[in-house]
Design a protein that fits this description.
495 residues, single chain, Alpha-Beta Plaits, five-stranded antiparallel β-sheet, alpha+beta, Uridine Diphospho-n-acetylenolpyruvylglucosamine Reductase, domain 3, 20% strand, Uridine Diphospho-n-acetylenolpyruvylglucosamine Reductase, domain 2
């Protein structure tokens, strides 16, 4: 991991920086105590840690703009942070930087059931939006596994998805507009409360930009009416490859489930032990398929999915009898990540995408890599859209094991590119995948990323060292990946 070198001059000026920011955010809005800063030293990717120089917690858009303007004018770098649930190190602090936390901007500002929109501040949690409109029969569709904690601002930064993104899209498909503080401290609005806007799609550029282009201080999202009927199915297979083919066949048949998730045998066992969802423990692969819409349509689709599953060798097809059982099906899947923490001292959550037709091949290759590296892996997938979440199991206390885990993860991401996919689906690039950016993109393409960054943030103060590698490092990264692969194959040959 290569992060920007700290600027000692900025560190030496810490007392003045603290005083200036306390003038903008009075009271307890600026944190400098070393013990209190430890809570901010990493995000969900805890393998990488760095205490920030200080943390500032504004409560208004005006305060955010004033902080950014002051930092821009004084050459102080900023790392934006939501709830810190990112799994790619997107909110990893800088030793000479201000960590700008948005958790106190946590109000829902407006709900419009006629136009079906909600306007919320970035610190509002994903789930809180659904809870706010539930009584009127509406919900917010993107639902990451961390939805109880992750914020809508963080969702925008990472273009978060979730188990229901197959039918209803990821964050970019559900955000209509944002209020946005530029790196110079200006407040602008992109988009609005309607689906189509003229001119350049700057909103599409900002969603998923990982805090590199500006800081979102208000989000307008669309909400959806709850469907008339929802049916959830558990489908068990004796072979992973059969489950992979079943997923491809369901989509090929023109059926778009609200969600379609896959778990392999280790994931099934871990989740069942954690929440008791009623999963079949003899399944090598388990699909959770959710269908929604009018009751008559759901009934037909359940029958068609059952037929396709049985043709692909499913030994179990179970339809949830009621809402409680449907919730239990999903509870196990949502708990897959914490469940992994019960079977291994540590785990490393990967995120990549592949074409659906490649699922059987990729699953087999991941199993082979697991043997090569001597590391267990729990596979959890947003199978319908080919979004993989392998959880590599390791023990950080064993010397060299984390490095071996990183190598395993790199091979998975490169394999995604090899089969026609990409290195990230919904977790962003952050610091975790910055090396693999040089694998997926050539220098000309990477230069375009840098040009966009320069157009928005010519001073380079926002979240430096994330997302896009410096071009001078790209050949080094590519060379490093090649050496790692050669070493791996040599070890396997002697093993």
């Amino acid at each position: 991991m290569l992060m920007p070198e700290p600027d000692q001059g900025v560190i030496d000026a810490k007392t003045d920086i603290v005083a200036a920011l306390r003038a903008i955010v009075p009271g307890e809005g600026v944190i400098v105590d070393a013990e209190e800063l430890k809570a901010y030293e990493s995000d969900g990717l805890t393998a990488y840690r760095q205490p920030p120089m200080l943390v500032v917690l504004p409560e208004t858009t005006a305060q955010v703009a004033a902080i950014v303007r002051w930092c821009h004018d004084n050459g102080v770098r900023i790392v934006p942070r939501g709830a810190g649930t990112s799994l790619s190190g997107g909110a990893l602090p800088l030793a000479d930087g201000v960590l700008l936390g948005l958790s106190r901007l946590n109000r829902i500002l407006h709900v419009d059931y006629v136009d079906r929109v909600v306007i919320a501040q970035p610190g509002v949690t994903n789930l809180a939006i659904t809870q706010a409109v539930d009584a009127e029969g509406f919900y917010y569709a993107p639902d990451p596994s961390s939805q109880i904690a992750c914020t809508i601002g963080g969702n925008v930064a990472e273009n978060a998805g979730g188990v229901h993104c197959l039918k209803y899209g990821v964050t970019s498909n559900n955000v209509l507009g944002v209020e946005f503080v530029t790196p110079e401290g200006d407040v602008v609005r992109l988009g609005g409360s309607t689906l189509e806007h003229g001119g350049l799609d700057l909103l599409g550029l900002v969603v998923g930009s990982e805090g590199l282009l500006g800081i979102v201080t208000e989000v307008t999202v669309r909400i959806l009416p709850k469907p008339e009927s929802v049916s959830a199915m558990l489908v068990g297979f004796g072979e992973l490859e059969d489950a992979g083919r079943c997923v491809a066949d369901i989509i090929a048949a023109g059926i778009i489930p609200a969600g379609m998730e896959m778990m392999d045998r280790p994931a099934v066992h871990a989740a069942e032990a954690f929440v008791g969802a009623g999963y079949p423990l003899d399944a090598e692969a388990l699909l959770i398929v959710e269908l929604d819409g009018p009751q008559a349509e759901c009934d037909v689709l359940v029958g068609r999915v059952s037929e396709i599953a049985k043709k692909n060798g499913a030994f179990l097809v179970r339809v949830a009898a009621n809402a409680e059982e449907r919730s239990a099906f999903w509870a196990g899947r949502k708990a897959a990540f914490p469940a992994a923490g019960r079977v291994s001292p540590d785990y490393y959550c990967m995120d990549g995408t592949i074409p659906r037709r490649k699922l059987p091949d990729v699953l087999a290759r991941i199993r082979a890599l697991s043997d090569d590296y001597g590391l267990g892996v729990i596979n959890v997938f947003h199978a319908g859209d080919g979004n993989l979440h392998p959880l590599i199991l390791f023990d950080a206390n064993v010397p060299g094991e984390f490095e071996r885990t990183e190598g395993f993860g790199s091979r998975i991401l490169e394999m995604c590119v090899e089969v026609g996919g990409c290195i990230t689906g919904e977790h962003g690039v952050g610091v975790e995948k910055i090396r693999q950016m040089a694998v997926q993109f050539n220098d000309e393409e990477l230069q375009q990323f840098h040009d966009v960054k320069a157009a928005f943030d010519p001073a380079g103060i926002l979240n430096p060292g994330k997302g896009v590698p410096a071009l001078r490092f790209c050949q080094e990264y590519r060379s490093l990946e090649h050496k790692q692969h050669t070493h791996e194959h040599t070890e396997a040959a002697h093993g």
